[in-house]
Structure formats: C-alpha cells, structure tokens
Amino acid sequence: MRRYLSIFFSGIIIVMLSSCVGGSRIEVLNQASDEEVANEKLIKIIEFIENEDEEGLKSMFSKRALDESGNFSENAELLFEFLKGEMVTWEKDSGPTVYSSNDYGKVVKEVDSYYHVETDMETYFFLINDYPVDDSSADNEGVNMLLVVRVENELDIFDQEREILFKNGEKISPPGIYLPIK
Q1: Per-residue pLDDT reduced to its tens digit, 110-150
Q2: Helix or strand or coil: residue 120?
Q3: Torsion of CA 123, 60, 127, 182, to 10 degrees
Q4: Contacts with 46 (C-beta within 8 Å, 6 or more apart), sequence order
Q5: I need a labelling partner for 60 at 20 to 30 A (CA). Which of 10, 16, 128, 171 fits?
Q6: What DSSP string runs through 32-79?
Q7: Structural contact between residues 42 and 128, judged by C-beta atoms closer than 8 angstroms
C-alpha cells in the first residue's frame, strides 16, 4: 500500500510541475519573437517610405516621439528625398538588442533593430529604436527613433566622439526620424 501511495503522490507532483512548465512554454511559443516583430515593423516602414505615405509612417511612432521630435512632416519629407532609388531588398545587420524591465508588474521593453536596406541606387543602414511594450506610459509605445544613413556611414554613428548616438558616453535615442549624416 505504501508503494502505491508513494507512486500516486509522485505522479501528482510530476503532473503539477509539468503543467506549470507546459503553460509557460505554450505562452512563450505563442508570442511572436522580438526579431519577427522588428522585421514586420521594418517592412511596414519601407512600404510607407516607398509610397511617401507620411501618415502611415507617422502611425508607427509613439505619441511621445511625435511630440518631442519637432516637425515630423519636414523630417519625413527629408527622409523621402534622402532615400534614392527603388527598394530592392533588406537584411538584418545584427540584433535585435532587447532591454526589458519589470518594475512591480509594469513591463517596459525597448528593442533596437539594425538593418541594411538596398535600393537599386544605394544601400542604407536603418536603426529602429522601438518600445513595443511600456506599461508605465502608453504614450511611449511605438517606434521612438528611425535613424537612416548610407551604409558607408554606419560606423560613424557609433563613434562616441561624433556624439550621434552617444553624448558624454551615454547612449541617446533622439525621437522621431533621425538623419544625422546626409
């Protein structure tokens, strides 16, 4: 009898432990990966740029980024003029780099994605700084910064002395469309 009770309780413990693991595993599998979400955002951004759709592009950005970026319309027009040629292809350069915090249940996730976007005339480097989740401020959810430079200037933006993405050694992400080197 003891043996049967021991087997019975062991079975219950195994079922309880596996149900906890299984539930969280299913939840993880059902969530889109950060890379998939970032790629989908890039594809939408490229589509809006190709169509010179300022309103569509604007819809990708957070309310805070739009409020703090200055003249979004002017920056969108500069972006449309800066990108030469028809889009051919894109590929992930690296990342995404994900920063996540959970402060008493308020989740904040920041995702930096890096891409090479090729047109029939030029190749560009895109850096997308995005907040897909910000439970502490809904106004912060969405793209914070879209940085675009020609691919030959890619390393220049990381040069701390040039202060494009770093100021006094600290990472910065100027909100809105950012064309630091034209």
Answers
A1: 999 999 999 999 999 999 999 999 999 999 999 999 999 99
A2: coil
A3: 60
A4: 87, 90, 117
A5: 171
A6: PPHHHHHHHHHHHHHHHHHTT-HHHHHHHB-HHHHHHSS-HHHHHHHH
A7: yes
Rounded distance between C-alpha atoms, residue 78 and residue 96, angstroms: 26
Neighbours of 58 (CB within 10 A): 17
Q: What is the pLDDT of residues 28-76, one digit of tens each?
A: 444 469 999 999 999 999 999 999 999 999 999 999 999 999 899 999 9
Helix (H, G, I), strand (E, B) or coil at 84: coil
Domain residue extents for the chain: 1-31, 33-178
Joined tokens for residue 75: 């920056």
81, amino acid identity:
E
**What pLDDT does 17 receive?**
47
DSSP-derived letter for residue 181 is -
Other CB atoms within 10 A of residue 69 CB: 19
Q: Which CATH number fits domain 33-178: 3.10.450.50, 3.40.50.150, 1.10.150.120, 3.20.20.10?
A: 3.10.450.50
DSSP label at residue 104: T
- Using a 10 angstrom Cβ sphere, with 0-12 exposed, 13-18 middle and 19 or more buried, the burial of residue 79 is buried
> What are the distances in angstroms from CA 72 to CA 40, 59, 94, 175?
22, 11, 27, 10
Q: Give me the numbers of helices (H) and strands (E) for the chain, helices first please.
A: 5, 7
